[in-house]
Amino acid sequence: LLGKFGDEVNMPVYVVGGFVRDLLLGIENLDIDIVVEGNAMEFAEYAKKFLPAKLVKHEKFMTASLFLKGGLRIDIATARMEYYESPARLPDVEMSTIKKDLYRRDFTINAMAIKLNPGDFGLLVDFFGGYRDLKEGIIRVLHTLSFVDDPTRILRAIRFEQRFDFHIEETTERLLRQAVEEGYLEKTTGARIRQEIEKILEEKNPLKSIRRMAEFDVIKHLFPKTYYTPVMDRKMENLFRNIPWVEENFGEVNKFYAVLHVFLEFYDEESWEGVKKRYSLKKNLINEVKHVEKSAQALLEMLKEGVPTSFIYPLVKGVSNETICHFLAYLEGEEEEKFKAHLLKIRDTKLEKIDGNYLIEKGIKSGKIIGEVLEKILMKKLDGDTRDEEEILEEILA
Ligand code: CTP
């Protein structure tokens, strides 16, 4: 249909990028990127007349988006040759517009197009061997300046490699390492880096990507005081093993903050301020990290010894889900199981009869004392005291 519209307004129309890649891999993708050789706005306006879609125009970028039912999104752009004006790029006057558009993209597997105009419908436009690389499972840049043009591609290469279980090709790896070494990650805004890391963490097996980031020295260049040692790797493994359990039992985990919990151990005031500003981190994150750092060893010993739940309670009272994940990063095997049992008990133990009002009626006025008394009753219950709450209260008051 879009191809037919293209003919009607006299523009070649292509579907490009991730959609083509996923189509060839047989993977569903509801984000359709369209490139027209002509005015994208005009094309979008025209298409809108015939489609039950909402049109959003981005005048500044000369692009438009059509939102259809069922989550389908169609982005429309005008074919362009350069995002990034670079003197090192050879201006090949012979190149067709769509070829130039594809040439500015990240990897060969993302640089294919399929023509949609009825005359050529379904024609695969593949100038750079994308189809071959897709079949062989290779991540390859199109030219030597790809990572320099856009350093977030360093993280994208790792993400796609892991997502499809592909491999970063040798020259591409060399260029990637070079861009890292020359400090191009540092030249990129923290917001864009954070976004890419978050995307990596939304994928199926992020641990693999984190290990790859470490291998390429990317972590050091993003978090200057983080040394990805074998000890840290083990924590990361424990962390990722336990995130699904925490989400199931305690709700959503912000994976970015969970990973940062481990990365930011041993940060001092100054290095913390740096990353906080760069990645717009929440103020309290460092205190959460320090809390775990300070008490993890004690927790481990208590779990080994087999203390009652009331000993564990103060460490996890009111903490974030990411903090729970961080504690779990220190644990394995028996201790991990014990800690989880404590956590569930704490989650499920509540005072049923007695609350603040009840104590006020009993004549206790100080808020501080009320809090302390309630907590004492709770601790008793956590440790398996099955007596009536009132009975426990009497004992405490006595
Ligand atoms: N692209 C690029 N360089 C980037 C980001 C994007 O060249 N830094 C190009 C690629 O051709 C990519 C397309 O823009 O295919 C769309 O980008 P995006 O939607 O971010 O990625 P997808 O490839 O669609 O991947 P995903 O499945 O993760 O959405």
TrEMBL record:
<comment type="similarity">
    <text>Belongs to the tRNA nucleotidyltransferase/poly(A) polymerase family.</text>
</comment>
<protein>
    <submittedName>
        <fullName>tRNA nucleotidyl transferase-related protein</fullName>
    </submittedName>
</protein>
